[in-house]
Amino acid sequence: MAITKYDNYYSQLREDLKSIVDDNGFVGDGAESKALGFWFLEKEFQLDSTTINEHLIDGANDRGIDAYYLDDDTHTLNIFQFKLPKPGNFKKEIDGNAISKIYGTIQRLFSGKSTVNYNSNPGIKDLIEIIKTSTIYNTRVIFVSYNMGIKSEENLSLISESEKNINEDIEFQHKIIDREKIINIFDRSHRNHSLNLTFNYQNLQSSNSVNTDDGSTYINSWVGMISADKLIEGVDHNLSTIFDENIRLYENDSKVNAGIKETANRRDTATMFYFYNNGITIICDEAKNSPGNNEIALLGVSIVNGAQTVNSLAELAYENDLQQNVNILIRIIQIQDYEQRAKITEYLNSQTAIKESYFIANHSLVRKLQGDLFKHKYYLERQINEYAYKSKYQNMSKYKDYNILPVENAIQRYIGGYLNGKAAQAKSSKSTLFDQKNIEENMQDISAEKVIIADILYTHIAAIITMYRKNRRNVKNDEFSTFLGIDSVKYNSDLYSFLNTGDILILNTVINIQRNKPELAIQPKFHQNQDEKINKCIKSAINLIKDIINNDEDLKVSAPATLTKATKVFNLAQHATKTQSQSI
Predict the structure, then answer these.
(1) In this predicted model, what pLDDT tens digit does every residue of 282-299 receive, in sequence order?
(2) What is the extent of the structural domain holding 475?
(3) Which InterPro entries does the entry mention (predicted)?
(4) Which of 25, 104, 241, 570 lies at a C-alpha separation of 20 to 30 Å from 388?
């Protein structure tokens, strides 16, 4: 049997998934499918490891639901089903039984007819609680499967009928991520460069477009004219990366390039440049056109035709020899299908929502915090992906051994750890921490030392939570019970189910333990060996929280994810650290 592109991409994808399986302790026949879910949520929803693991549904009785995620900004509940077929099974579809299973479960959850059997799975129990207590305007069922997806009229009709039967007051949608879309995500994630650029043009008109069978836009394009100086101003310092998807790069000694430069340099020929030159073609993931001020913003952009023209004009511009009246034909193609992008490049070869947290990037306290953290070899990213972005275009070697810390993580962990009155909010409603009305109060006592201590503790807590997850997924793994000092035979993982979503609760409890027992406090030195103190505090915090939950009849029957966001549980833990500090 011939090897297809689907076989090759499958092999490459599985290499990525293997590391996810190992890092997260996924076991059993569904381990790689769960890893596919982790990979998809990381690449497409940009969720961090902790958040992803909180929303993956482990264990038996998941009833066809592999993960969920509630987008608090849009009030959209996303429900996922992930499937990684066996090698060679790429021409099959998602079968009707899988579709019926997930929609049957959703119908029961939204109707309130969940059973004891459903509640036996902690993840489903958490999902039930979210449906009961959260504001949900839309629900999306997202099928992610490395095969043909869902094509047959029978299965598409089954989805349509299932959505109609759930609840007419709730808007249901579905999305199918098949092998082609997975390949596109894979290609995008492994691209060396992903530039976002903005250009001012002379004129630009919408041109040809191609739609898919469901009516959605597949390819969009624009054609127009841009002045040479505005083009060079747009690419500016990105000449080394703007041609990432181009087959050919600049040829210094080319007679053609000499001719381009001569035409653009002479007054008597500059006005004819538009007619003499073939122009340039730009390809991008997304284009946002603003015709009012003649500006277009391009995301994931690459010049796939015109490397000789652009580089020749750039050399003239840097030498101040570029005539002002040089204009160029420009074509912009918006397409995310990387197979077609490659074909477009080949045939033309004749020549990455701003999060609320990043609105505080320029706040004086944040700027000061960044400077203070530099002294401790921490690089606070005031802007999203700041370090990676700057590394592309400037020498960042002096920060080589620094710990990279996004501002939203720094502030969430500081508030969750040190501000008892807002610790529950740091877990339950992270985005509200950065509200302009509250940020001054939330950050008034922040310091580099506190941020570093919170980060050190959080890193250790996350490692312990990973131990717990591996143990829950594989009963033969006894790392977590060994950490607690419990005989594996006597260990009951259900008593510690709060750990899956308990990162901030444990962090707050640990810091309160250290407040009440100064001899257990640590120093803000990441590489200093403080493991013994940290592990003692984490172990005490876990046992303290476990006892609080299991000694309260109401808390004992609540969903774990609800408990770790509840103000009541935070308050009880904070009180317990004061009253029980001597026994720790």
Answers:
(1) 998 889 999 999 999 998
(2) 357-583
(3) AIPR_C
(4) 25
